[in-house]
């Protein structure tokens, strides 16, 4: 009996202990699932294999406008491949090299899955297989014939595969290097809050095959516009990322006004706009956009951040970087597809403004140089005395012309805005 009693009391203790454990694990499990770690949503998000297959299907069905290639590179036994899709509606009477060139890259960071979904939606829309609310694709035919577009849907395929395998916070490539710190502009500089798990720049600039491929692609394509698409917040960034200023010159004003237009039309003015380093709260060294602007001389180079959940905890990466319900998912891919159609439409016009400004300034300088040389040779040594005065006159003259150009630019952008207002319903009024 004693035995029975003791056995019964110990079994009831075990029972209550197990029940407690069960209860604890349910509560804790719910905690983990719902507030700390949102799992990969396979209903909303496609695998990289599926995205590649879908894109191949589009290319096969639309050979008149799409083609694709796979670029490969390797370094020290690490291999990478990057799928590049070219959209070009070839017309015999239009010379390809004279077309407006746009290079878009998605998925540079593994965990930002929504960006590659946007790439897929954009390519489906360009193939007219999917529509975008409030965007009349057939009315854009004229515009789309004048551009060549290269799209990299999954820049960091190896990193993305790690995320698909369950490492939901991975942003780096397949061997732990952040592809947006591996470029040569201000490479390797580390801020005080440097976190190697997030921002490892690699052993040297361009140590990573993915970055090598992107550099090669941008060199051969020589784009007018570069956009690298990210998520984690809502922002439209222009250079620089490695310092908290924007570049000098009037081209900066054009870039800023372009981003303001995109923000107003497609981000409901929610997006942060400005230099990456100045707006985001930290400096980033060795980024793609700084390289594209500074070294490749891409006149308009941007980083778009298309979505972020500020409420998500730092460890809940899937939710922080990607919409988790279908309504938000569709809103994000539709809004940003529409934003890219605005860029396709307005890009050449923005480029004219950049060219207009820079060519005017160069010619003013040349004109003044020529004028001064002519004066010097005509008046010989006497001119040396007047040199200082002439320098001042030159400065005033340049300032005067600069302000005239600025006024002209403002005038032009007003005209463009009013012109734009008349065609605005085509791309705006997106259901945000
Ligand atoms: Zn990113």
UniProtKB/TrEMBL annotation:
It comes from the Eukaryota. SMART domains: Zn_pept. GO terms for biological process: proteolysis. Keywords: Membrane, Signal, Transmembrane, Transmembrane helix. InterPro entries: At5g42320_M14_CPD (IPR034269), Peptidase_M14 (IPR000834). Residues 44-328 form the Peptidase M14 domain. Residues 1-29 form the signal peptide. Its cofactor is Zn(2+). PROSITE patterns: PEPTIDASE_M14. It holds the Pfam family Peptidase_M14. The keyword ATP-binding does not apply. GO terms for molecular function: metallocarboxypeptidase activity; zinc ion binding. The active site is at 305 (proton donor/acceptor). This is Peptidase M14 domain-containing protein.
């Amino acid at each position: 009996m004693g035995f029975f009693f003791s056995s019964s009391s110990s079994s009831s203790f075990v029972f209550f202990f197990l029940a407690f454990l069960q209860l604890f694990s349910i509560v804790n499990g719910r905690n983990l699932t719902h507030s700390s770690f949102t799992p990969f949503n396979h209903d909303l998000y496609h695998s990289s294999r599926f995205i590649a297959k879908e894109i191949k299907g589009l290319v096969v069905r639309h050979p008149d406008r799409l083609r694709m290639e796979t670029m490969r590179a390797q370094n020290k036994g690490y291999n990478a491949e990057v799928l590049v899709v070219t959209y070009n509606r070839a017309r015999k009477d239009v010379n390809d090299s004279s077309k407006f060139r746009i290079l878009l890259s998605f998925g540079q960071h593994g965990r930002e899955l929504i960006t590659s979904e946007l790439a897929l939606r954009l390519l489906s829309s360009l193939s007219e297989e999917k529509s975008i609310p409030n965007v009349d694709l057939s009315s854009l035919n004229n515009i789309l014939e004048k551009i060549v577009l290269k799209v990299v849907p999954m820049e960091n395929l190896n990193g993305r595969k790690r995320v698909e395998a369950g490492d939901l916070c991975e942003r780096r490539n397949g061997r732990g290097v952040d592809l947006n710190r591996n470029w040569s502009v201000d490479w390797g500089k580390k801020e005080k809050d440097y976190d190697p798990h997030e921002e490892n720049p690699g052993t040297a600039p361009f140590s990573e095959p993915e970055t090598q491929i992107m550099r090669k692609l941008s060199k051969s394509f020589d784009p007018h516009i570069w956009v690298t698409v990210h998520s984690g917040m809502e922002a439209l960034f222009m250079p620089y990322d490695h310092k908290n200023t924007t570049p000098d010159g009037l081209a900066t004003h054009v870039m800023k006004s372009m981003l303001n237009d995109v923000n107003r039309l497609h981000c409901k003015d929610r997006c942060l706009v400005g230099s990456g380093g100045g707006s985001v709260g930290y400096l980033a060294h060795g980024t793609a956009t700084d390289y594209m602007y500074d070294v490749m001389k891409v006149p308009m180079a941007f980083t778009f951040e298309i979505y972020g959940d500020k409420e998500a905890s730092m460890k809940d990466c899937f939710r922080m970087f990607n919409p988790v319900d279908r309504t938000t998912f569709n809103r994000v891919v539709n809004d940003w597809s529409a934003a890219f159609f605005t860029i396709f439409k307005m890009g050449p016009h923005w480029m004219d403004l950049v060219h207009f400004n820079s060519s005017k300034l160069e010619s003013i300088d040349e004109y003044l140089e020529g004028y001064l040389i002519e004066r010097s040779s005509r008046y010989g040594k006497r001119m040396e005395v007047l040199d200082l005065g002439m320098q001042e006159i030159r400065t005033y003259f340049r300032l005067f012309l600069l302000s005239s150009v600025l006024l002209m630019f403002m005038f032009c952008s007003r005209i463009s805005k009013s012109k734009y207002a008349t065609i605005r319903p085509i791309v705006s009024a997106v259901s945000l």
